[in-house]
From TrEMBL:
It holds the Pfam family LptD_2. One of its GO terms (cellular component) is transporter complex. PANTHER family: LPS-ASSEMBLY PROTEIN, LPS-ASSEMBLY PROTEIN LPTD. Residues 184-660 form the LPS-assembly protein LptD central domain. Residues 1-29 are annotated as: Disordered. This is LPS-assembly protein LptD.
Length: 854
């Protein structure tokens, strides 16, 4: 209820009107006040001298010991030892200046409609109170407070909405209750949704009211999955261990027997590090038990992310990004969890990296140790390196002098570097990794590399570069190959020989490069200039034939037909083997950059001319080996990029030309393709572009986040707010932004590769092309529809498609997600509370994105 100031009866009383700001500090003997009372009235003060009553207006404030009260109207009755406070109605009829009360004892401020308070007995009645309690809000029509700091409430509401009267709230209506320092004890209570009482009631209830984060129930979402039936997803329990560590335990159940479980833990230490890990397990059942199409799959997935602040330990770094599990996890769980994003469902690889770094010798020596893992989810192959060690020494000039005066001599420009690497790795199938003997397949090795280089300016317009590169490898295993005559026929045999072995190689390269500028001034309309920059380079390179028997790196055996087979004893080494075959050739490349200058009224720099890129790099490169016995010219590779529509559309392309023809079996032969009527054969080509019809959308969202960050940094953010803001900044696409009315983006990819078809006995092109679309639009300021779809032109089918409808309920979210067809056909409905920082940004967490942050 809203109180008015009609009780301000000053008739038949002598009053004193003091305008402007008034400050009165009094200590009345026998008044019941045990300390000084500070009284401030920003606008005016009236006093009834006979009744010993003061009336304070506009920004009035009374402070006594730990009790502090501010309002637009306060009446202080010293005879009765009572205070009355309320707001006032402004000229528009709006009730403003509600009392704000601070009771002391570390309690948060409370906003009320009006109150009576007996400062002698320290008791009072409060009307229309609203106070925040650990992210929730308690509102009540009447509240009475006693000397024990306990409050009795009448007709109260506990909700997540911070508005005085929740326009769209989900809350618990409390008929009567008692609020103490650590708990709320309620009489009859019932659930209220959108102002409508629900048939969910309790004869009594107990709500903990801690001053810090508290553990509690996590509400599930409901839906239906095409293969697993009706679902209750992500029901669980939130564990708040302390301000630096919390965890979520969740589970999902399906009507056809499938289930999932997960534990998601986050941790942070201010100014040092933060991170989190997520362990998930799923038991997926498909079909009907007892039939041929019944199947049961057990999968797991583990993720861990850790970030260290640079200032926490200068010169030392530690980071982790782990994503490890069974290859079929995301495919089998489908849309069964809010943590399965579109990218997760479409991905075909997983990777992990845990890295430690240390800088020595004033930054000249850098040591890095890491554990890595790469997993192909289609083939189920897995590669692990446990560990990788790298030591790099910054390049230096050994012939230069610290006391040198003047420019460097040519020999003083000689540059030397050094790097050391060590690796212990294994390559296997994920199902065999933890089987007996799986870890015995690890291969290990060490590698040293010493590059020596010299760079000089030559003939004014050329850059001269020469280099010598030496690489040495150390292995603890090598292989021997032979042919065995078995009962099943001849089979190749590979034996692993233990023992230390070293292998080395070296190469020499010398080259020249320059830039050629071309300018054309057409003066056509606004077009004023076209500039073409050509960067040609050429280099001579030499490498010996390390398969020569004098090196001992290669051996040979004869097969069953008497043919000689040459192989490297380090073919399975983690750093490979020195190359076979002598190389003495010439390498070449040419890069092109074309841009135009046009008149622009908006751009006043460069004489009012605006640069427009036409071609942002078109590069051709290849090599010619003079000492090769055949196929001396390598394939010619090319790549390029450009942008259109004021940099709104980015285009990338690449490909390879083969200068040689192929025979009837698709094998390259030593015959130039030009002799068969074509300059070269295009063996592969790739093209991709992306375009957003509303590129200002991302810019607008980032500006909103930046402005809120600045605003909150001044006032001070809570750890929860800082965490939420960090998640928004790191993954803005995971949130629906109601500030952006619409957005539509598209991407297209095209790939072509030619291979020999043994059936048709001809070269055949394998083409894949996909168009992807995603966007959103606001139906009203509170309703938003998002979609994501695409089309696979090779398969001639629509790719995974999803539609989502979001309703912004201010302090709550409601969403409906639907995948209408395909393997992951499903729908779900989610209702959940929203973090306060997302309310300020008008952002909503996408239902299909990972993690629950509320």
């Amino acid at each position: 209820m809203s109180a008015t100031n009609k009780s301000q009866d000053t008739s038949k009383s002598k009053t004193v009107d003091t305008t402007k700001s008034v400050s009165d500090t009094t200590k009345k003997k026998g008044s019941g006040l045990q300390a000084e009372v500070s009284i401030i009235a920003v606008d005016s003060q009236k006093s009834e001298v006979a009744k010993n009553i003061s009336h304070l207006y506009r920004g009035a404030k009374v402070k006594y010991q730990d009790f502090e009260l501010s309002a637009d109207y306060i009446r202080l009755d010293r005879n009765k030892k009572k205070i009355f406070a309320s707001g006032i109605y402004d000229k528009t009829g709006k009730y403003v200046g509600r009392p704000i009360v601070i009771m002391g004892n570390g309690e948060s401020p409370k906003t009320v409609d009006s109150l009576y308070y007996d400062y002698e007995k320290q008791e009072g009645n409060t009307y229309g109170i609203m106070t925040e309690v650990d992210g929730g809000f308690i509102q009540a029509n009447i509240v009475r407070k006693n000397i024990y700091d306990e409050m009795s409430i009448y007709k109260g509401l506990y909700s997540t909405c911070n508005l005085p009267y929740p326009h769209t709230h989900f809350g618990i209506h409390i008929t009567k209750g008692i609020v103490t320092k650590n708990q709320i004890i309620s009489g009859p209570a019932y659930l209220v949704v959108m102002g409508v009482p629900m048939p969910v009631a309790f004869p009594f209830a107990f709500f903990p009211k801690p001053d810090k984060r508290a553990s509690g129930f996590l509400f599930p979402s409901f839906g239906e999955d095409y293969t697993r039936g009706f679902s209750m997803r992500d029901i669980g329990w939130y564990l708040a261990f302390n301000d630096y560590w919390d965890s979520e335990i969740r589970g999902s159940l399906y009507s056809k027997g499938s289930w999932e479980a997960s534990i998601n833990t986050r941790y942070t230490v201010n100014y040092k590090f933060n991170g989190g890990f997520n362990i998930r397990y799923a038991n997926t059942k498909t079909g009907i038990e007892g039939t041929s199409n019944y199947g049961s799959n057990k999968d797991f997935n583990v993720t861990w992310n850790h970030t260290q602040r640079q200032e926490a330990n200068p010169g030392t770094s530690f980071s982790a990004s782990v994503n490890f599990g069974t290859s079929s996890f995301f495919q089998n769980t489908g849309t069964g969890s809010t943590q399965n994003t579109y990218e997760n469902l479409a991905r075909n690889r997983m990777g992990s990296s845990i890295s430690y770094g240390k800088v020595f010798a004033d930054g000249k020596v850098n040591l890095t140790a890491s554990l890595t893992h790469n997993q192909d989810m289609a083939t189920r192959s897995i590669q692990m390196s446990l560990p990788n060690i790298s030591l790099n020494v910054s390049s230096f000039n050994p012939f230069d002098s610290k006391d040198r005066v003047g420019e460097q001599k040519w020999y003083q420009r000689i540059n030397v570097g050094y790097s050391f690497q060590a690796q212990n790795s294994v390559s296997t199938i994920d199902t065999l990794l933890f089987k007996p003997g799986g870890f015995k397949k690890f291969q290990n090795g060490f590698q040293h590399n010493i590059p020596i280089s010299l760079s000089l300016n030559a003939f004014k317009y050329f850059q001269f570069n020469t280099s010598v590169n030496y690489t040495e490898r150390w292995y603890l295993q090598s292989t021997r190959q032979s042919i065995d005559n078995t009962a099943a026929g001849y089979k190749q045999r590979i034996d692993t020989v233990q023992g230390f072995n070293r292998a080395y190689d070296y190469s020499v390269s010398t080259g020249l490069s320059t830039k050629v500028y071309g300018n054309y001034y057409p003066k056509i309309g606004n077009l004023q200039q076209i500039r073409h920059v050509v960067t040609p380079s050429i280099n001579l390179n030499y490498r010996p034939d390390f398969s020569d028997p004098r090196y001992g790196f290669y051996q040979q055996y004869n097969d069953q037909y008497g043919n000689r087979n040459v192989y490297s004893i380090f073919s399975q080494g983690v750093y490979g083997s020195p190359s076979a075959g002598k190389s003495a050739g010439i390498g070449f490349s040419i890069d092109n950059n074309i841009e135009a200058k046009v008149k622009s009224k908006s751009d006043t720099t460069d004489g009012g001319l605006k640069k427009i890129p036409i071609l942002q790099g078109l590069t051709f490169s290849g090599n010619y080996n003079f000492v090769a016995d055949s196929l001396k010219l390598s394939p010619i590779t090319f790549s390029g990029r450009t942008a259109f529509f004021d940099q709104k559309m980015n285009v990338n392309f690449n490909g390879t030309f083969d200068p040689y023809s192929v025979n009837e079996n698709g094998v390259r032969v030593n015959r130039y393709a030009i002799k068969d009527g074509s300059l070269a054969r295009l063996t592969n080509f790739g093209l991709s572009f992306d375009y957003s019809l509303n590129p200002k959308a991302a810019k607008s969202r980032n500006n909103n986040i930046d402005s809120l960050r600045k605003e909150m940094s001044g006032a001070g953010m809570t750890p929860e707010q800082a965490q939420a803001l960090a998640r928004i900044s790191s993954d803005p696409n995971a949130f629906v932004d109601f500030n952006i009315p619409w957005n539509l983006a598209a991407s297209f990819s095209f790939n072509m590769a030619k291979s020999f078809n043994s059936s048709t006995r001809r070269m055949q092109s394998q083409i894949t092309s996909t168009l992807n679309l995603h966007g959103d639009f606001s139906v009203t300021p509170k309703w938003k529809v998002t979609f994501q779809s695409g089309y696979d032109f090779k398969q001639k089918e629509v790719v995974m498609t999803s539609f989502n409808i979001y309703r912004d309920l201010h302090c709550w979210d409601m969403s409906f997600g639907w995948m209408p067809f395909g393997r992951f056909r499903s729908y779900n409905v989610t209702i959940r509370a929203k973090a306060s920082i997302l309310q300020d940004l008008k952002l909503t967490k996408r239902a299909s994105s990972g993690g629950s942050y509320f």
